[in-house]
Amino acid sequence: MSFKELVLQDDPTCATELPARRGTLVVVAMSGGVDSSTVAALLTRDHDVVGLTMQLWDQRRMAQADPCAPKAVHGRCCSTGDVYDARRVAEHLDFPFYVVNFQRQFEETVVRPFVSEYLEGRTPIPCTHCNNHVKFGELLRLARQIGADVLATGHYARVEFDAERGRYLLRKAVDETRDQSYFLWGLSQDQLGRSWFPLGSLRKPEVRELARQFALPVAEKPESHEICFVPDGNYARFLEAYQQDQGAQPADSGGEVVSTDGKVLGQHGGLYHYTVGQRKGLGVAVGNPLYVISLDPASRRVVVGDGDALLSRTCFVRDTNWIAVETPSGGLLVEAKIRHQHPPAPATLFVEGNGVRVEFDTPQRAVTPGQAAVFYQRDLVIGGGWISGAGG
Amino acid sequence: MLEAMLPFLREEYGNASSIHRLGQRARAAVERARAQVAALIHCEPGEIVFTSGGTESDNLAILGAVRASSLPRKHVITSAIEHHAVLRACQALEREGVAVTVLPVNSQGFVEPEQVRQALRPETVLISIMHANNEIGTMQPLREISSIAKEAGVLFHTDAVQSTGKIPVDVKRLGVDLFSLSAHKFYGSKGIGALYIRQGVTLQPVLFGGHREMDPRPGTENVAAIVGLGAAAQLAVESLPLQSQRLAVLRDHLEERILERIEDTGVNGTRVSMRDGEFLRVPNTTNLYFDFIEGEALVIALDLQGIACSTGSACTSGAVEPSHVLTALGLPPERARASIRFSLGKQTTDAEVDILLRTLLPAVERLRALSPRTPAKAHAHLPEVRIL
Prior knowledge:
The complex is a heterodimer. By secondary structure, chain A is an alpha/beta fold. Chain A folds into 3 domains: 25-213, HUPs (Rossmann fold), CATH 3.40.50.620; 252-305, Adenine nucleotide alpha hydrolases-like domains (SH3 type barrels); 311-391, Beta Barrel (Elongation Factor Tu (Ef-tu), domain 3), CATH 2.40.30. In chain A, 24% of the residues lie in helices and 28% in strands. Chain A has 8 helices and 17 strands. Chain A has helices spanning 34-43, 59-65, 80-93, 103-119, 126-145, 189-193, 204-213, 235-245, and strands at 25-29, 48-55, 97-101, 150-152, 157-162, 167-172, 195-196, 255-259, 264-268, 291-296, 301-305, 311-322, 332-337, 345-352, 355-365, 372-377, 380-391. A 6-stranded antiparallel barrel of chain A has the order 12-15-14-13-16-17. In chain A, strands 3-2-1-4-7 form a 5-stranded parallel sheet, with helices on both faces. A 4-stranded mixed sheet of chain A has the order 9-8-11-10, with no helix packed on it. In chain A, strand 13 and strand 14 (345-352) form a beta hairpin. The longest helix of chain A is centred in the middle third of the chain and has 20 residues, at 126-145. The two termini of chain A are 24 Å apart. Chain B is built from 13 helices and 12 strands. In chain B, the strands form 3 sheets. A 7-stranded mixed sheet of chain B has the order 1-7-6-5-4-2-3, sandwiched between helices. A 3-stranded antiparallel sheet of chain B has the order 8-11-12. A two-stranded antiparallel ribbon of chain B has the order 9-10. In chain B, helix 9 (242-261) packs parallel to helix 13 (350-369) and helix 10 crosses helix 13. The longest helix of chain B has 21 residues, at 21-41. Helix content of chain B is 39%, strand content 13%. Chain B has 2 domains: 2-238, Aspartate Aminotransferase, domain 2 (3-Layer(aba) Sandwich); 242-369, Alpha-Beta Complex (Aspartate Aminotransferase, domain 1), CATH 3.90.1150. Chain B is of the alpha/beta class. In chain B, strand 9 and strand 10 form a beta hairpin. The interface between A and B is medium-sized, with 18 and 20 residues.
């Protein structure tokens, strides 16, 4: 598409220097997977590397509250196997490695908001909260405290410094199928300036190949796509177990399923079982396929309707963070991405208070409160924010 | 120590329970070690049972003593700052229906003997109060507690893992019935320890197996490790008490310099080393808080500079909850998490303590400069770091 006003007219003369001087200390956030392990291997060539793995969650807690938890999870610490893998990589490459405990901060800034968002009828993205507060918050601070200038991670995205405008820019990864910029829109200029994503210019098969060349013990390790603290993917059961663990009565015991014109079609067992756009598991049978149109926490109603009722021309976004610009001008043309798997759609931004109104050129399906809207011009991330509602 | 062990890992591989001469030589070595350990704590060799270490000694003493009692209802007294090997063993007994009283400690880290007396019940079977605490080093008034126990006819166990080999100990003088020790705390190998069981005290075994009748601990003896423990005990006998005096001086010097150069820092537990010729804390450790930082971060920063120290105890680092010992002293959670422990050993020199001091100051300064908890005014300076 063509943008009326490009935030950057041409590719700027960006800093080509490494984020950290040769010979200085770099901390690598290691998950035990092939991506962050390869980052560590790449950086050992020119830097003093220290590996840190975060201990974020103790699965045994939930196993106690939830006797139905999968057996494989019983008695197992959060990612013990991954910690073991990260440690093996550090031993193989011979650099200092530590496991650091951020369980307290993770629960406060990721798990609690995750639970309350669901209970309030939204569909949260815990990874973004974790990036904003834990990985590029607590872990980056610790990295600096122990003497590093930057924190390197296995994210697929690119950071550049635009010297002319004095801003750090975030761009999509060269491998667009792996791009994770959608999860990084919340980073401040300071956080971006201290982050290093060496995989942003590589393709995944190249990363695997590098891992093999470095003879990393995790070179053939499969990827995980689950939310790290909900290893079986059953987040509804996690929410119930967590509330029980907190000694709380289930905050949402269900309500009515209604049609868009207010007709009661049935009962549901809690808003958190539903996501906007969901089709299966509604428990009501009528002729046409029905979708979840919206979730109303005040009345505890699940509103369902046909596919057309899912389309919205407008999306409201709050708590925005701007990366390529200080603040956007009204009427800025962008491509807006409203969930991880959503192909960015042409839209116009209008600043309203501390948020923006996004007007899509063509109505978009399933604008979902709690997800993020991230605004792009080509591969450049302009900024983003949290979706608060849909209109039109 | 290693020299003493080596033959038993090579040609002298006999089983100490065998009839043949190879086995007899192993038996003789085990018995020699038993005598060496007995000499270290001033008891009879027959009162020493070898175990796999402090945890097993504590478990055998507590579970074994309480289960051996024929009282219909049973009660145990312990303290809030015990090692988990004691606390968890007591919790296991609670699940068997045994009542457990966990006594608090004062802000200096001491159990009040009077509280022990008040906690006594007709059904009290055992008192288990540690000798030196493994995190803060404070030494409990065992002689006063043991006379209370004796008066009441109650067995008295002490976890002395942290004091044995660090200061001279005498089980008869302390008046204890059961006394746990571990080799790796005084340069023996890991995975070997002992329990002193006073003559006349009967324990119900925790492990069952072959071996000699009446022995509360079956299993083939780890001859090389036992020989090492004996040698370590012998060396400790020879170097104590001079070594403890030297370390106390060095430790006090380290503490004073740290407190004088770094603000918002303090010692957890008592600072008094000795009173009336008795140690009030082990001479080789100090546990300090550095407000506004995370102890875990300081441990990593120092390790990168070649200095090994720890938060709390090795057994609790990595846990979410702040140390139960520091919490029992009344420290708020932030201060408990801002605490680390330094231990000195017989190879530690004055020069090494000076290196620690030179490294610690900028490390704490950098941590504080980047901590959101640091009050805005001070600590603006951000020292550079080069890792070793």
